[in-house]
Amino acid sequence: MTQFLEPLKLNNILMKSITVLTSILILLNCSPVQSNNLEGEPVSHEIFDQLLNKYVGKNGFVDYKGFQKERAKLKEYLTLLQSTAPGKSWSKNEEIAYWINVYNAFTIELVLEHYPVESIKDIGSSIQIPFVNTPWDIKFIEIGGETYDLNNVEHGILRKKWKEPRVHFAINCASYSCPVLREEAYTAEKLDDQLSDQAKRFINDDFRNDITKDKAQLSKLFDWFGGDFKAVMPIKDFINQYADVKIGDKTDISYKEYDWRLNEQK
């Protein structure tokens, strides 16, 4: 009798083991799968580069009507950004270029979603969403399982993580007084040169910064985010790295009013 019981015991143990393994596999298959590839290769910004070359003038003003005609192509690029978030293998420059392009591309998309508007600030007041007061508070950017607004990208990532004040000249808030939108996408390979060029363009732009030997009417960016620049060096020294006319110790400094009109080509 025992000769017959031993095989039965073995069969029962085997069946229980199979049941346990099957349960584990089912649980694994039913667990949430992250749709975003957090460890993917850095994305290509070629699509955005083509659109910027086509619809941004040398003065930085934007042909939003042109962007509207190729909105499907812009959405293709946005989907690409959303499908591959920065991973641990990405370099610092790859991440910074990625998030600057995220900010600029999704800002354009936000404007197009509500176009025509006289100012991007009109978007925040025209939609009724609880706890959303400005367009920069609208959470519509889904990346890596997280939903971001433009403030998250600017303040929570670009400013907080890398302490690189030149990003202020790279991100574009779709307004007259903002640093101009660059006519090309940012890339890791060219990032340092692109940021320095943006700083030079912005600081020497008389509309945004009017600098003479005696007086300097600076952009409000240097007032609002003065701490970011001071963390690197005194603001005067920072500006003098790029300014054609240098600010002296006795130069009287004031700040210009910010013009929030939409940066649209006329």
What does this protein look like?
- The chain has a domain at 46-205.
- It has 266 residues and is mainly alpha-helical.
- It has helices at 2-30, 46-55, 64-69, 71-83, 92-114, 121-126, 150-162, 191-203, 221-224, 226-230, 235-240; strands spanning 141-143, 146-148, 210-211, 215-218, 252-255.
- The relative contact order is 0.12.
- The protein contains eleven helices and five strands, in the order ααααααββααββαααβ.
- The strands form two sheets. A three-stranded mixed β-sheet has the order 3-4-5.
- A hairpin with a 2-residue loop joins β1 and β2.
Distance between the termini: 97 Å
Amount of beta strand = 5-15%
Mean pLDDT: 87
- The coarse silhouette is globular
Relative helix content: 40-55%
Low-pLDDT residue intervals, each spanning 5 or more residues: 1-5, 7-11, 13-37
Q: Give the quaternary arrangement of the chains.
A: single chain
Major sheet description = 3 strands, mixed
Provide a brief overview of the structure:
The chain has 266 residues and is mainly α.
SSE diagram, text form:
Layout (H helix, E strand, L loop, with lengths): L1 H29 L15 H10 L8 H6 L1 H13 L8 H23 L6 H6 L14 E3 L2 E3 L1 H13 L28 H13 L6 E2 L3 E4 L2 H4 L1 H5 L4 H6 L11 E4 L11
Parallel strand pairs: 4-5
Antiparallel strand pairs: 1-2, 3-4
Helix pairs in contact: 4-5, 5-7
